[in-house]
UniProtKB/TrEMBL annotation:
It comes from Halostreptopolyspora alba. The lineage of its organism: Bacteria, Bacillati, Actinomycetota, Actinomycetes, Streptosporangiales. It holds the Pfam family Isochorismatase. It comes from the Bacteria. InterPro entries: Isochorismatase-like_dom, Isochorismatase-like_hydrls, Isochorismatase-like_sf. This is Cysteine hydrolase.
Amino acid sequence: MSFDPQRTAVLGLHWIVNVIKPEGFFADMLSGPVAASGVVERAARFHQGAQQAGVPIVYTRFTIPEDGGLLVRNTGLISAVAQAGESFRPDAPGSAIIQEMPPLTGSDRVVDNQKVSGMAGNDLPAWLDRHGRDTLLLTGVATNLTVEQTARHATDLGYFVYVVKDCVAAAEDSAHQAALANMDITTTGTLTAREALDALGT
């Protein structure tokens, strides 16, 4: 298996303070399991390796602008986040990409939306198409939320989606494993960071 770096992008889903860190909004649910899993360090190394191969990293952030953007309170999760809107403003500390991730390069970008899928409610699909990126390598938190939702969405849009299975994590291992099993069927497949970097020729 090999990936063409010129046709590949990494989607770094919800690597923000609100999701990952003890001071973030989802601390009680996610910060402990994320820290215990070691996923932050693995994802940071993978992102750096992808950058070295010339692959752009696109970080997605769930943020809520003053006017609400495209937020629709149609799930319990979204409704809870909406009530904490100030914590999710684009310039709020909780919306920042965690500092463990490697610095952005000139080809990397940050995309905001108010959806669970990183591909919804923004210009990311158009950007990927404009740059000829049809192969997507997904990392992020949580496996059973934004990662699975984005993976299914992107697959339906016609992209070749691979989930980097040692660079995703969830609040509970059972949910994590179930989501990975689902994505083995509903996407092009799952693979490790090492396998992905080998396929990129690094």
